[in-house]
Amino acid sequence: xxxxxxxxxxxxxxxxxQGPRGPGKPPRGFGGGGNGGGSGDSPxxxxxxxxxxxxxxxxxxxxxxxxxxxxxxxxxxxxxWRALIVPKxxxxxxxILVISSFTLSRSRRDFLRNDLQSFRHWxxxxxxxxxxxxxxxxxxxxxxxxxxxxxxxxxxxxxxYVFTAAHGLHILGGLAALLAVAFHKGRRLTLATxxxxxxMYWHFMDGLxxxxxxxxxxxx
Amino acid sequence: MSSHAHSAPHAMPAPTGFISKYVFSLxxxxxxxxxxxxxxxxxxxxxxxxxxxxxxxxxxxAHLPFVTGGLMTPEQYLALVTMHGTIMVFFVxxxxxxxxxxxxxxxxxxxxxxxxxxxxxxxxxxxxxxxFVAIVAAFFVPGGSPIxxxxxxxxxxxxxxxxxxxxxxxxxxWIISIALFCGASLMGALNFIATIIDLRAPGMTLMxxxxxCWGWFVTAILGLLAFGVLLAAGVLLxxxxxxxxxxxxxxxxxxxxxxxxHKGGSPILWQHLFWFFGHPEVYIAILPGMGVASHxxxxxxxxxxxxxxxxxxxxxxxxxxxxxxxxxxxxISGMSPYSGFAFSVLTMAIGVPSAIxxxxxxxxxxxxxxxxxxxxxxALGFVSLFISGGLSGLFLAQPxxxxxxxxxxxxxxxxxxxxxxxxxxxxxxxxxxxxxxMFGRMMSEPLGKLHFWITFAGAYCIFMPMHxxxxxxxxxxxxxxxxxxxxxxFQPVHKFMTIAAFITAAGQLIFLWNFFWSLKHGAKASDNxxxxxxxxxxxxxxxxxxxxxxxxxxxxxxxxxxxVPGAAExxxxxxxxxxxxxxxK
Lengths: 220, 585
What we know:
The complex is a heterodimer.
Chain A: H1 6-13, H2 43-77, H3 89-112, H4 116-146, H5 155-182, H6 191-218
Chain B: H1 18-23, H2 28-58, H3 74-93, H4 95-109, H5 118-137, H6 169-198, H7 211-242, E1 254-255, E2 258-259, H8 267-301, H9 308-321, H10 337-349, H11 351-365, H12 374-396, H13 399-405, H14 409-439, H15 445-471, H16 491-521
Antiparallel strand pairs in B: 1-2
């Protein structure tokens, strides 16, 4: 094609729509051009953990929303639904979990201020509060069982046990993660990333519990 | 390889021992092949089950050596229906195109060294493997496999042994298997999404991703949002069965003269939860196939894909609408006509992005220099089957029509063509296309073409007549038509379909032979045998442990730059810098 000059070819094979920065310079990807893998602490890889946690929380949310919609539908479906009066200790447990979110925020703030000692201190406090919450939930189960309210007693009690058990298992996982960060050895994740994603998870579980608690008390 | 290549160390060191290299591997390529082989075993099993069903429909009184007593009972037939559906939907259509090929090629196509979370990736595979072991174990537990279909509707599935031989242990194994599968799929989906968002090579914008990656991306999002719902439903069903709760099982249920102690549960609730998962699931099966078909049609027409952006957005649109139409599986459940109308309109709306894709595929072919290779034939077959199977969906989307057709073979024909066979054609196309990259050798082209024509003609011979007997009133799920007055008239058609099924199933042996023979004896493949443009063809064959041998590519253009005017070659790889592109003289 004698009529086409070299510059024309570049124009033809690098049309404008392919990149705003002109030919020769690859624009950065949406994710900023991670080098595909990178070493353990490359920025792209650390970002992937945050993305992964965000995405995972989306999946967990769908799991709980399926249960919640089942709760609403089942409540309206049968004449056999009897409202469940939740044990009083649930108020205390809820307060403990909400406080643990504040101590966790404090811990993260200290980490970002590079005050590692205070970071660890508040991190341990959060972990302890998490355990306290779980113990409180177990006490609530005991109280219900002592009152003769079991899993199969009524659909409302079935849902109560399912919600608290599913959430409790997620809290248990969160506690394992909190402990893993507390005894952090730092191989693949930096402490900044691991404390960040665990905090995301914990706050989410806190918010989710508050929602479930409101559903179980106001929506009974 | 581009001169702009730069290096990045791989996250995981190359493994040395056999176990860490091939069994508990962290390498996405090995995991992809593991998923593929798992699906291959599952599909062979699934085909055997379907052949048994077809045999029984035509010769219901034939003595079978492996059945106790020689005669197949209606319950055993329903067990075949259940296990065929479950194995095919979960362990073939969900496993091969997404987890298999997606795992192998997604990281390479976006220029990454591996998935974002290799350990999680390994965990997903082995959890899927356990799920498969659990579902196969359902054949061998007391009472045998469940009889409630792949949809496991309660009350049949919720009451235990009393409702049927497979409803004790078999149904429990089914729920355990599906719960494990949900967990594995959630982990996989998370990994795919994080990988696509964060690990793309420099220059690989979302709008420069191959359409295969778009398919895997949208599928991963669907999986993430859908499998959690099925998991929740499965937990509740398990509690109904084993803990005496009444989520789904209605009150005063009398089975074989026994009054069961359940309160007013809602079987319809299960249907809602199941189909909220179940409808996106059919797109989980077909979207990767759409990506592969687009990719192959462009490559073998030597033309850019027609309307790249429209194709990507159409996939997103299909995924989005896919979450709003689950009710069309439940038109006969007695739902309000207003709900039925809404579900109907939304279902038909999916016809719009589907039509966009179809016309763009045809537009891609238009005036192309078409090369009829085996992968291309399967891509063309995919388009054909997608249209044939998709159009009947528009009829079924009408509640009034569905009421008439729902329990007939018409529905069987519809979903087999559009999500079963079409998705399988996507898998076959992908296999013939990527086999050289994965194993370093070419598959036999003559055998591939023979395999295509037998499968293509066979699929239509099996499923086209089903539409007609369905319209005429042939009820599905009946094990034996001879006892129903108006059903025997369809037997000649059934016989035709059964013989077609035998031939089509036998035709798959050609594929198996071609696959395993070519592993050892196929012609050596070059790095880029199809003259394709995407990044997997820019690296060695088969790719090294870190995919690019340390030279990570940069991306300069879209994925389908074929027959660019002024360029010497009829394709320009994505990683070729503009100054390196050879010009025609």
